[in-house]
Amino acid sequence: MAAFGMLVATSASAQLFDVSRLDDDPVPLEVLSGRHQGEFARVEGQAIHETSRRPRWWRLTAREAVQPAESPHLVLRFPYLNHVEVWRPGDAVPVRRSLVGSESDPEFSTRALVIPMPQGLATGESIYLRVTAFSSSPMSVDVEPLAAVHRQDLRHVALRTFVLGTLVVLALLAVGFWVGIGERTYAYLSLTLAAQAFYLACVGGEVRAVPWLAELVGSDPRVGRMFGLLGVVASNSFVALYLNLPERHARFMRVLHGCNAALLVLLLANLGTAAGWLPWVANTVFLVSAVTTFAVSVVAAWGRQREAYFMVLSWAPMIVLVLLRLGELLGGWRNPEWMEYAFPIGLAMGGLVLTIGLTDHMHQMRRDRDHASRLATYDVLTGALTRSAINERLEALAEAAHRGRRPLSVVFFDIDYFKRINDAHGHRVGDQTLRIVALRTRNRLRTYDLFGRYGGDEVLVVLPDTQLREALCVAENLRAAVNCRPLSIENRLFNTTLSLGVAELHYGETVEKLLERADAALYASKAPGRARVPGYTASRLRTPAATPVSNTANSHGASTVV
User: Which of 75, 72, 48 is nearest to 59 (CA)?
Assistant: First the structure.
């Protein structure tokens, strides 16, 4: 989007002057003496439209008197980087003006070159201008009272400050996001916005606030052009990453790659030449990039790609504005004065929309990552930890227990005859059974105890800082939570019981060995008739009574069950 600023609109006003052009560059004395009066050719409209980079003379002849009462000023808008020498009636030396550099006038803003006309201008009197142009954009000619000049300057400064400030702030935010999260798309967005800001400051004259840069830009228009080209290259790269063109829209990607290759060649050419053909070629390549970007955005939006909505919202106004500007350049119509600010404001708003869009894209990616991480960590059906997740955390807890000589116990349990439930009532009832059992048992645990679905109906509970005796009490609480009353599923009651096995970690023991002992205890509970809680010590299995212990007093308090 950076190069949209190359297409700057002019304002329309009443015809105050007859404008004529001299296609030669004689010495000023010959022109002012009237020697070349008959060689001036009248042009249509009230604008200076230079197509040549060599100096050229222009004559402005007043159609009616310009009275000095309101301190009239000659206003040349939009000056780009042109150098103008103005000979007013009675002047022995010209008034020299340029947008930047030593010939700029800090009394006025950069919206126009302003030349006072203290004596006014009589009907038929002429003002002579010697113009050295660096752009083919027309420069409108107006006369404004001093009060109107200052009023327009204030508006101009406010709007340009808003535009440039917005672009700079967004560029800095993008840099911060890039550094913070390492996402390369933010780097390209930051480069795009920064190049746009520098380009607008160069062509709009705001660089005169930095004297050495102003002198460089004022004497060499290639500086501003360089930022414009860099902005387009960065914008194309941003679009490619943001819309994931290599995977989703490879054909459009190849077009943008070709445009970037051409722009890089133009960048190198820009370093060595100031030829008049280069801006036209650059704008042509830019227009191809713009049309391609907008086309792929529309296609992606039609395909319901969320990121494309922001691209369409950002680019659609700019496409309309550039078409209006092209129509004016081709002589189709005159655009209103506000068009002078439409493109810079469009750039700022487009940058804001893209920043919001990219931020939304990053949030969506984070939500997807979080969802994937949750799927890898938690069982969808029961909300318990997955097997890999609880194993990973058990390893860490076991290492800490060994290091601190602290107790650690585990409980394995499963639902008795769970396969019969699935076979008799279907998997939907089986799933509901798992959910209710998981909820009832998890409610009997401490907040820092681990609860994981190990596979099928088998559940692993990890109890940090818990000895075997305490773990057996916890296991009884878990058994009682399920055995105490039937499960209500689809208006039917199901009597369900648990079998549990308990084991305590021994110093120096591996997690694999611990789980083997707990699993052995679980299978031991099934041998005498299920619904039991054996505990596996180093020497023997310990099997307490199968009577539910619903009121056991320990640190694992019971809560409401399903």
Answer: 48
Question: Quick check: do 2-145 and 387-542 share a fold?
Answer: no
Please state the three-class secondary structure of 446-471 as a single string.
Answer: CCCCEEEEEECCEEEEEEECCCHHHH
Angle between helices 146-181 and 184-204 (to 10 degrees): 160
CB atoms within 10 A of CB 305: 17
Question: DSSP letters along 164-182, please?
Answer: HHHHHHHHHHHHHHHHHH-
| Higher pLDDT among residues 474 and 560, named by residue | 474
SS (H, E, C) 543-554: CCCCCCCCCCCC
Cis status, amide bond into 78, omega within 30 of 0: yes
Extract the tokens encoding 400.
Answer: 């800490």
CATH of domain 2-145: 2.60.40.2380
pTM passes above 0.90: no
Place of tokens 């585990």: 410
Instruction: Count the alpha carbons within 13 Å of 502 in the hemisphere toward its beta carbon.
Output: 25
With residue 196 as reference, give the H or E element that holds it.
helix 184-204
Q: Is 159 exposed, middle or buried (0-12, 13-18, 19+ CB in 10 A)?
A: middle
Architecture of domain 151-370: Up-down Bundle (1.20)
Q: What is the dihedral of CA 273, 279, 280, 286, to 10 degrees?
A: 120
Domain 387-542 has CATH 1.10.8.640: no
The two three-digit tokens of residue 437, written as one number:
């059992």
Where in the chain are the domains?
A: 2-145, 151-370, 387-542
Q: For the chain, what is the radius of gyration of the CA atoms?
A: 40
Chain segment 172-194, per-residue pLDDT in tens: 999 998 998 888 888 999 999 99
